[in-house]
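Supplementary Note 3. Input sequence used for the single-chain structure prediction.
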Amino acid sequence: MRNLEKSWCHRIKYSGLYDIETLLPYNIKREWSLQRNNIKYEIEVITALNQKAIAMKASKPVKFIKMFELLSNILKYECLYDGRFFSLEKLEIDGNDKTAAVEPYMLSYYNGKRSYSMLSQPINDTIYKRGFCAWERYNKRLLNVNQMFYYIGFSEGITADLRLALFSEIFEPLSEFLSQENRIQLINSKPTLERNEKCPMCENAYKVTKPSPPSFNDKIASVVKVYGFDIFAGDEIATIIKKTVKTRNKMLHVDAEKKEILNSGQCGFYMRKYVEIYRVVVMQQIKMWSADMENELKIAMQKYNQEFQKLRIREKGTHRKQNECSTQ
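The predicted structure, written as discrete structure tokens, is reproduced below.
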């Protein structure tokens, strides 16, 4: 890879596979271009069934590392729609197979087997490209948050409770960013701090008030309230968030005695819902969210809830209402 970093190239082609027994309903071909530093990149992305191919051609020789960075960003952008990565099968540089040289340096999440809901891509290539450029700007502003999303959301080898604990950390900087963008209003359940003071000149007593900063619980709730309506429909949100925070405290603060936490199955179940919320946030921030996506996610969550009913923490009365509807 070190030799490749110093090399120059015209073309690069990535061939990826999502290796499962069933076939995915993909049949998408995109052709678009980007202009960067007086170099034009012609890009073709083909997703057919369980395979994805990304071919890029530069108008003049560029350093391989620049092409590789662009390829990585396209893979991450595609993952926002696909809800999965297509693991590297082959990488060609100017027609030469360099898979063995590159494979050890592919970050773990590119080869992850985890998958989430599939969301429709825009039909128009121009709109798709606009979304990609907006995603790059978002990625620069929230690079650490975005990297945590990919690492924790898609990498293997992390237990469900630790994954949930680590992923929940995203909501602190994310909530503050969304508040600054006027996308959400931060909930603050903590009481205002007060202290008694005395004027040094006249000795009159007065009170000084200072608002308390929102708690970690408040910050998660602020994001879920705006972006998680369909995802957490029918769930007891306050209880889930409370248990999420306690699980995080147990895992990251090594508090073995912490009670009222989510069990392992619930951690895995709600981890997916938190991941889906983050995807909605990003899609809305880059202005790619659509009514089709909203409907697809709603249907996916309904199926998910039905499949894992025993892991849900239902809103009070929800289970009884569902039973009444099913018997009518």
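Residues 135 and 282 are 8 Å apart (CA to CA). The two ends are 63 Å apart (CA to CA).
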